[in-house]
Write a structure and sequence with these properties.
The chain has about 725 residues and is of the alpha/beta class. The chain has 28 helices and 21 strands. It has a seven-stranded parallel beta sheet with strand order 11-12-10-13-14-9-15, with helices on both faces. Helix 9 crosses helix 10 and helix 10 crosses helix 26. The longest helix is centred in the N-terminal third of the chain and has 32 residues.
């Protein structure tokens, strides 16, 4: 074990303080091991140059190209009034396109001497547009002298690694730093058990590290990738398998519903039959609730597939068995809405202890931050005495003052909106660990669920309840075809004319102070669509009221309104008093107004795919068909338009979440996304590497079953410690 410190050596001892400081601050690299795991993003071949034609705007790029020509111009400026200003313009080419480099002032002398026509070099800088042409201003560069000794030393092999870099540290400087620490790779401890590695024909870790940083052939890169993907998938799955194992050792109170109790009474009064999917998932949940260790289940389903009904039946089962159930919602609007719909569904069964309450009735209380003191005190009392079987609330439920009589089940709605600490605090309020049901309405592809929620059992609702209507979705290209937008507002008027209601969604509220620094800059017309501020609720509502929707009752709803005002607006809309609700994404989850049939999403390109799917699920909730119009000014060929076309083409949330992930990459599946750090996945792509993840999960389960403490696998323990630094360890603990 005394070999480990070679990889734990701080970079400042090896590379010098200045370079180490930039690596720590800009790339999050602190040790030799961190740097060895900073893999190249891609590789350039000597003879084959980057496609200059495909450069992304505003990104920091590294290109390998040849100088076509170089010209020095003089000009007059404020600093050099007598025409003594100098500007060097260098054109580089790679066969696919040309790119202009510019150097000013004293910075022209060195490149003027070195960047002669025919010279090949690596250039790094930020791509910008000047006079409608792409350019790099003052790029850093490194000459590639084809036959000199130095070039062969620095770029061993024909493949030049291009590293994820920053403006402060170019790719080739990172390459030189890697060259310095590469000998330490020999001392890397292998996390994979020998039998697994040999059985799957994977390279040893030291060899994989050498090959990914200094490949001689493309086969080297493929072999290294195959090995390093396994490391990431396997170590992550072992972490989750250990959690699953630890959960099975926790005690929990089994909750079995009474034969003729509250749940039976509720089912008897339902005006419709449950879908096959709802029945199946309920059975899975009841089986978990009856066990002696806590349920940890993820319930995911399409927008409107009836998840709330399944969660409510689980809560009633627990109340039947003498426990209490808490439902945690991300916003006050949603908590109030859940409370309203659950008390309506339960009728007199929700009037425990009151006149008119049914025989098995319980009390359903609401607890939010903005409640009045008296109502709040009564709710807290009902929870502490056990009078209230069900509580629905926001994070106000988590405060120290809240005491439960016997908390048996925690239901978390819209999991991705909650910090792990909040869920954990609520789970800590049970005398023994309560059962946990996590609901998400953003369908997650199976592999992502296995990677992110690998410790949760997963149930999927994929049928829509009877009586739900199809939703037609269309893209409205407002810039190319303004008459389409005019037609969109006519469609809204038609829906209102036939007795229905509509939503208009905008990305911004509109009462923010615009940044004066940004206001002063002149923009080119092509920047305008890209850079103009997103449309705002307050502006759009005013324009619609004066213009295309004049005469209709238009109201606004956004997150900065007082909770009472928000609730009043929602009640008026739900009651049919408002024709059109102009809102931000506060309506994204859970808002249920069956009479709302149309939705117009302004600047739809500013929203993610899953978010658009969520929003669209707010219409078509009754018997009339839904209509969703995605308004955008982006040009037809843009990636944003392709995204919108994907949303318009399918109502399958699982398919859309795959598209979303493929486009966005997955962020950090271990929850580091919550703290803004980089992704912990460097070579593993959750969507593409489906098979690796599934196989790694099986292998991990077998390893943990045989050796839960990993006593015989010191390399794996070390890798787990590196993956689960304290913050992540806590994240996984709290899940």
């Amino acid at each position: 074990m005394d070999l480990v410190p070679a990889l734990q050596e701080p970079l400042k001892k090896v590379l010098g303080p200045a370079t180490a400081k930039v690596m720590a601050e800009h790339l999050g690299l602190h040790t030799v091991g961190d740097l060895l795991h900073h893999y190249p993003r891609r590789y350039e071949e000597r003879g084959q140059l980057t496609h200059l034609a495909d450069l992304p705007m505003d990104e920091h790029v590294t290109v390998v190209a040849q100088v076509a020509d170089a010209r020095l111009h003089t000009f007059a400026s404020a600093k050099a009034p007598r025409g003594k200003g100098q500007r060097l313009e260098v054109t580089i080419t790679d066969g696919s396109g040309r790119l202009q480099l510019v150097f000013f002032g004293n910075g022209v002398h060195k490149p003027h001497k070195e960047l002669l026509p025919g010279t090949r070099a690596m250039f790094a800088g930020k791509v910008s547009v000047f006079n409608r042409r792409l350019q790099l201003a003052h790029p850093a560069y490194e000459l590639l002298r084809g036959d000199g000794e130095e070039a062969i030393e620095t770029w061993a092999g024909a493949l030049i690694p291009i590293y994820p870099a920053t403006a402060k540290l170019e790719s080739w400087k990172i390459g030189k730093a890697v060259q310095t620490v590469l000998p330490s790779a020999q001392e890397a401890l292998d996390p994979l058990p020998d039998s697994l590695r040999a059985g799957r024909g994977l390279l040893p870790l030291p060899e994989a590290l050498l090959k990914i940083h200094r490949p001689h052939t493309k086969a080297d890169i493929a072999d290294a990738h195959a090995r390093l993907k396994w490391d990431e998938a396997f170590v992550l799955q072992v972490a989750l398998a250990r959690r699953r194992h630890a959960d099975t050792l926790l005690p929990a109170v089994p909750r079995v519903p009474a034969a003729d109790g509250l749940l039976t009474a509720f089912d008897d009064r339902l005006p419709f039959t449950l879908t096959e999917g709802q029945r199946k998932v309920s059975e899975e949940i009841f089986a978990d609730l009856a066990a002696t260790h806590p349920m940890h289940r993820l319930l995911q389903g399409e927008v409107g597939s009836g998840k709330t009904m399944v969660a409510l039946r689980a809560m009633l089962a627990v109340v039947d068995a003498g426990g209490q159930a808490a439902m945690l919602a991300p916003t006050e609007v949603l908590a109030q809405q859940h409370h309203r719909s659950i008390t309506e569904m339960m009728g007199e069964l929700a009037q425990g202890g009151m006149l008119g309450g049914a025989e098995h009735a319980t009390k359903v209380v609401l607890l939010t931050g903005s409640m009045g003191t008296a109502a709040r005190r009564q709710a807290l009392l009902d929870l502490a005495t056990g009078e209230a079987g069900i509580v629905i609330g926001t994070h106000a439920l988590i405060e120290d003052k809240v005491q439960f009589h016997d908390l048996g089940l925690v239901v978390v709605d819209e999991q991705h909106r909650f910090g792990v600490e909040q869920r954990d605090a609520l789970r800590g309020k049970g005398r023994q660990p309560p059962h946990l049901l996590v609901m998400t309405a953003t369908p997650i592809p199976r592999t992502v669920a296995m990677t992110v929620f690998g410790d949760l059992e997963t149930s999927v609702l994929d049928q829509l309840p009877a009586g739900r209507s199809p939703i037609a979705t269309h893209v409205v290209p407002a810039a190319d075809k303004p008459h389409f937008l005019a037609r969109a507002w006519e469609r809204v008027r038609e829906e209102v004319g036939s007795g229905h209601q509509a939503y208009v969604v905008c990305p911004r509220i509109g009462d923010e102070d615009d940044d004066p620094k940004k206001a002063g800059k002149k923009k080119s017309p092509e920047d305008e669509a890209e850079k103009r501020p997103p449309l705002a609720v307050l502006d759009v509502a005013a324009q619609l009221g004066r213009g295309p929707l004049k005469g209709l009752k238009v109201e606004v709803l956004h997150g900065r309104m007082h909770p009472d005002d928000k609730d009043a607006v929602m009640r008026r809309f739900a009651g049919g008093e408002t024709d059109v609700l102009v809102a931000t994404t506060v309506i994204e989850v859970g808002v249920n107004v069956p009479n709302a049939t149309a939705m117009v999403i302004m600047d739809a390109d500013r929203f993610g795919v899953s978010q658009l799917h969520q929003l669209r699920g707010r219409v078509g909730r009754g018997s009339a068909p839904g209509l969703c119009l995605l308004v955008t000014e982006m040009p037809e060929a843009s990636a944003a338009r392709q995204r919108l076309a994907a949303v318009a083409s399918t109502l399958d949330g699982f398919e859309l979440s795959r598209i979303d992930l493929e486009q966005r990459r997955e962020g950090d599946v271990l929850g580091q996304a919550q703290s803004g750090a980089r992704s912990s996945l460097r070579v593993l792509a959750v969507i593409e590497d489906e098979e690796v993840i599934a196989e790694a999960r099986e292998e991990a389960a077998a390893v943990v079953a045989a050796d839960p403490e990993l006593q015989h696998l010191p390399g794996l323990r070390t890798a787990l410690d590196a993956l689960l630094d304290e913050e992540r360890e806590q994240y996984l603990e709290k899940g």
